[in-house]
Amino acid sequence: MSHSGSLARGSLFVLVGACGGHSEAEPTSASIAPVTADAVFVVNGDDSSLSVIDAGSDEVIGTIQLENVDYPHHLYLSGDGERMLVAVPGSDLSGGHSGGHGGHGAAGGAVLALNASTGALDVARRLDAPNHNAVFAPDGSIWTSQIASPGQVLVLDPRTLATTSTLTAGNDPAEVTLSGAYAFVANTASDSVSVFEAATGALVETIAVGDGPVGAWPASDGRMYVDNETGKSLTVIDATTLAVALTIDLGFTPAVAAIAPGGELWVTDTDNGKLVFLRASDGYRLGDLATGAGAHAFAFSGDGTKAYVTNQLAGTVSVIDVAAKTVAKTIAVGSKPNGIVFRDR
């Protein structure tokens, strides 16, 4: 595990930049005993909580309750695995991201930075517009979108969450992801991906993709896989040249895509509650595996032998034997689980 972007942790709590229209109490969290083994963290949107799964026993060993927030969505770890970011768009996206964005209205989002061992709150901030996720950049700064038209990306100080710069993106920017020197922002309402230089924030390229993109998912093969939810397709972008390498017509609504340890392209079929296995070179369908209703995000274990899939409408996480492509176990978690990360120790 890399140790870049490490920050000292303490009991700091700051509520930064609350909008004048917000009367909510301050976001906070209820911490748990330190998690010292490999673990999986799952965001339960409807419960405003995080389920913690021991990766050895594949049992839930704790629940981190988030207070004064509605519908947390995705979460990301710092490079050293010591801090964890949770984004709170404030509305239920389990019925689809592209449709859900329009329902956000004027409500704001939030970012919470937590101790990744205990879930204790380091710092939180409410935002003027909803945000889909928040992610650490290589320099330790935090990037998050503002879902609006025109959209923005905020670069935040990692210690205080104060805005250090504001970048202009397309309409309704959703997931912000990073690969190499670039940050990729999927603009759902503009059918494009904005590519920024991570070190400077300069806009490098705007890439046309399919209908209703939500995230450009970085993969181990050096490509970004853009899930076009409305168009039911993937746009494949070379993360170095920024050229579109391939468009894969799926016939179902994708959620998250990644390259599995064996080199296949895996993508969740949220319509039918499945993992779908594709040949990465051309998108040829190799097979699929039923997981659970509303299959959404997934993460691989550190050794690559297991994958964990969140099933939003089933309230479960499926544990997948990667080599056998079978469901080894189904774990009950909270209501409407979505974002997921694997934290190895």
Provide a descriptive summary of the structure in words.
Residues 1-23 and 99-106 have low confidence and may be disordered. A five-stranded mixed sheet has the order 1-9-8-7-6, with no helix packed on it. It has a five-stranded antiparallel sheet with strand order 2-5-4-3-30, with no helix packed on it. It has one helix and 30 strands. It has one helix spanning 97-101; strands spanning 15-16, 28-30, 39-44, 49-54, 59-67, 75-77, 83-88, 110-115, 121-126, 134-136, 142-146, 152-156, 163-168, 173-179, 182-187, 192-197, 203-208, 213-218, 223-228, 233-238, 244-249, 254-259, 265-269, 274-278, 285-290, 295-300, 306-311, 316-321, 326-332, 337-343. It starts with 14 loop residues before the first strand and ends with a strand. It is an all-beta fold. The longest helix has 5 residues, at 97-101. 52% of the residues are buried.
Low-confidence segments, ≥5 residues, pLDDT <50?
1-23, 99-106
As a whole number of angstroms, the C-alpha radius of gyration is 18 Å
Mean of pLDDT: 91
Helix and strand content put the structural class at mainly beta
Q: What is the gist of this entry?
A:
This protein is mainly β.
Keywords summarizing the entry:
345 residues; 1% helix; mainly beta
What is the topology?
Blueprint: E1 15-16, E2 28-30, E3 39-44, E4 49-54, E5 59-67, E6 75-77, E7 83-88, H1 97-101, E8 110-115, E9 121-126, E10 134-136, E11 142-146, E12 152-156, E13 163-168, E14 173-179, E15 182-187, E16 192-197, E17 203-208, E18 213-218, E19 223-228, E20 233-238, E21 244-249, E22 254-259, E23 265-269, E24 274-278, E25 285-290, E26 295-300, E27 306-311, E28 316-321, E29 326-332, E30 337-343
Parallel strand pairs: 1-9
Antiparallel strand pairs: 2-5, 3-4, 3-30, 4-5, 6-7, 7-8, 8-9, 10-11, 11-12, 12-13, 14-15, 15-16, 16-17, 18-19, 19-20, 20-21, 22-23, 23-24, 24-25, 26-27, 27-28, 28-29
